[in-house]
Amino acid sequence: VLEGNVGYLRIDSIPDQEVLSQLGGFLVTHVWRQLMGSSALVLDLRHCTGGHVSSIPYLVSYLHPGGTVLHVDTIYNRPSNTTTELWTLPQVLGERYSADKDMVVLTSGHTRGVAEDIVYILKQMGRAIVVGERTKGSALELQKLRIGHSDFFLTLPVSRSLGPLGGGSQTWEGSGVLPCVGTPAEQALEKALGILTLRRALPQIIQRLEEALKNYYTLVSRVPALLHLLANMDFSAIVSEEDLVAKLNADLQAVSEDPRLLVRAIMPRENSPKPEPGANEQLGTLPAVPEDEAARQALVKSEFQVSVLPGNVGY
After folding, report:
1. Please, which residues bridge with residue 145 across strands?
2. Strand, coil or helix: what is 153?
3. CATH no., domain 6-182
4. Is the sign of the CA dihedral 166, 168, 169, 170 positive or negative?
5. Rounded to the nearest 10 degrees, how much is the dihedral formed by the CA atoms of 7, 71, 89, 238?
6. CATH T-level assignment (fold) for domain 195-256
């Protein structure tokens, strides 16, 4: 469990369903139960290069809400000419990880096979934000075949994902899974934690926006509609400050019909860039007030012009 109460689970190989069944109680105690109290989850599959198709429902089911089952994949096997449907499990041992909590999956160019299928399923479900590199685009199952009676062998993919969540027209095989947020694999965890920090702050950000609108916005008649918008806004796709600012401005301005209603992300003071020469003048702010009287008069004259016009009109 990392800083910010973020659960972290790294899986480098996915055993078959039989092994998982034998280890069920052990996994609940030493894996799932430790993660249940976390506020968000990072699933690290950057080093996962192999696994068994039979385990896909097991892993996905712990990340899918109970009460419903979901058809997550259909696997075609060429040698047996059979098709197998994969569904989430109606029941799991222990608890499921809450669907209300954010989840990030980390990937790399070494993420292959069954791990790719799991990444693809979680992404298509809208359950996880994928951060890292495009996955390998490998195959679910490989088989080594002897060529005739020779000493030569040919390794071929013999099973194929038909990907029902993607409409069945195209899956990750051959092309890999494209991350939601692309970044070098070695930086993926740091990037993921930054995304989760932002998403953890969203309720407070929205609360302060609501307070500002109620207390300060001059177009009072439009405030109720804006508050309703904020209360029902979907932030599931927000992965950066830029995303958040763009969405808020587009939606708030559309409802208020006011292009002056703007949200900006302000950098912390210690990280703020130094103002460019002349920035004070452009912003209309005065430099520091000098102690010398003559310097004060010069400063005032540079900023103010005072005249009495014909007709005794002050200017």
Report:
1. 154
2. strand
3. 3.90.226.10
4. positive
5. 20
6. Transcription Regulator spoIIAA (3.30.750)
